[in-house]
């Protein structure tokens, strides 16, 4: 039997330092599966994309690579990475990473119960919470909950839905605004339908993104953004950037008035 080149990690690391005290009322976001930073030009694209962003949600992010210094020495964003597996040969960890111009109040991560076949790797849910700018009620302490996830793939619907349930369990007790985004591997109708049902039950609305489905993703959209208590000002898909197998998505949000 062939030994897997990957091992389970399930760890969290905090890097860099935030530049602001609170987030909002205007919030600029980047969502991007960075394809393990394998393609040429990734670093230049990444640096230009994050410059004005308050929140950056990455999937297939890596740790223990030559890029670590960008995150460790950042004075603009705090970075929190939840690793789910490690390449035994290179020692590079892979997972989801969230960057923010504001330091997180809380953080929580959860690896999928099940593993993907062949590689035996798990996928990760990362939840982070941030203090919000003063609302119409200064005495009311509200926070923004951000859930960054990469859903398990190449498994049965039952295993997929179990992992999606984990993501939604992270938000069920939060009363304030929510941003849920990531690569959800929703490449069939049944997965997408279940996702929509859970979102509706939590009063989350999907952000409408105009884009072309890609052959490599079975002509299905895999990256999704859902919000509650946030208004969408603008969305842009960077189809001119090819340093990943996913296009980066930028969006401008605004805290909804109470």
Automatic annotation (TrEMBL):
Gene3D superfamilies, per database record: Endonuclease/exonuclease/phosphatase
InterPro entries in the record: Endo/exonu/phosph_ase_sf (IPR036691), Endo/exonuclease/phosphatase (IPR005135)
Family matches, as SUPFAM superfamilies: DNase I-like (SSF56219)
Keyword terms of this UniProt record: Endonuclease, Hydrolase, Nuclease
Lineage: superkingdom: Bacteria
Gene Ontology MF term list: endonuclease activity
Domain Endonuclease/exonuclease/phosphatase: 31-246
Protein name: Endonuclease/exonuclease/phosphatase family protein
């Amino acid at each position: 039997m062939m030994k897997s080149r990957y091992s389970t990690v399930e760890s969290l690391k905090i890097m860099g330092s935030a530049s602001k005290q609170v987030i909002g009322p205007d919030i600029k976001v980047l969502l991007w599966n960075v394809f393990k930073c394998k393609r040429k030009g990734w670093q230049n694209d990444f640096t230009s994309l994050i410059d004005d962003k308050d929140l950056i949600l990455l999937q297939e992010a890596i740790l223990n690579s030559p890029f670590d210094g960008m995150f460790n020495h950042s004075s603009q964003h705090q970075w929190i990475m939840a690793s789910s597996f490690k390449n035994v040969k290179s020692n590079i960890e892979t997972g989801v990473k969230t960057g923010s111009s504001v330091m997180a109040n809380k953080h929580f991560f959860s690896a999928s119960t099940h593993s993907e076949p062949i590689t035996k790797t798990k996928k990760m849910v990362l939840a982070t919470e941030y203090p919000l700018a003063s609302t119409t009620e200064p005495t009311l302490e509200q926070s923004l909950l951000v859930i960054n996830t990469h859903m398990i793939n190449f498994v049965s619907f039952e295993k997929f839905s179990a992992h999606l349930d984990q993501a939604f369990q992270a938000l069920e007790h939060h009363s304030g605004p929510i941003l849920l985004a990531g690569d959800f591997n929703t490449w069939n109708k049944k997965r997408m339908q279940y996702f929509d049902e859970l979102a509706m039950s939590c009063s989350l609305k999907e952000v409408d993104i105009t884009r072309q489905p890609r052959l490599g993703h079975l002509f299905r959209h895999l990256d999704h953004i859902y919000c509650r208590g946030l208004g969408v000002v603008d969305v842009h898909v960077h189809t001119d950037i090819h340093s990943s197998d996913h296009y980066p998505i930028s969006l401008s949000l605004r805290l909804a008035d109470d």
